[in-house]
Amino acid sequence: xxxxxxxxxxxxxxxxxxxxxxxxxxxxxxxxxxxxxxxxxxxxxxxxxxxxxxxxxxxxxxxxxxxxxxxxxxxxxxxxxxxxxxxxxxxxxxxxxxxxxxxxxxxxxxxxxxxxxxxxxxxxxxxxxxxxxxxxxxxxxxxxxxxxxxxxxxxxxxxxxxxxxxxxxxxxxxxxxxxxxxxxxxxxxxxxxxxxxxxxxxxxxxxxxxxxxxxxxxxxxxxxxxxxxxxxxxxxxxx
Length: 239
Description:
Elements: E1 5-7, E2 31-33, E3 36-45, E4 48-49, E5 52-53, E6 61-62, E7 72-76, E8 102-106, E9 112-118, E10 128-137, E11 151-157, E12 163-171, E13 182-189, E14 198-203, E15 212-224
């Protein structure tokens, strides 16, 4: 399986008084959300944890220390203080705070792709998925007026390079605290003949002053309508 993306097994949930069995090809048990229903992540990129970081495919230059310059990136657990004349947030941990890594990006002067990775072949053709990613603009609000805001495009492609779907974030604004990450998501339907995709993240804005960000927890979850089961006149149940 490609490094970085982790696979998650299907989980079944049981309710009192009845047993619900779903036997479906590539099926999932849904967890209800306001807009629909989401399964647990099928594949997820969290950039690793402990002593095992995960790296993307990119033309950017990898550097250590968590404070990259233009056209560079770091895979790190934290961002030190006083980074870039203290215009960046000091970030003590990744999005989930579980000793994990995140990708710290200082965008190149020229817009273009800075992340690419193929998922393992665990997706199900013809299924609707939600693709999501957490992003944080690293610039502190006090410096917002003089700094370029990140603006990203997410591309989901077949392994042959053919586009399946894409999503533009528009300007990603500064947030008020170190823990304020922004979640971006796109619902799409996988072609019937596809069980793996390539995720690409493209920088739409020029670099230079600003356009500095961190990304974490890229995930694919099966997505579908909310299904409610009603059981009428159930009484005298003996176990």
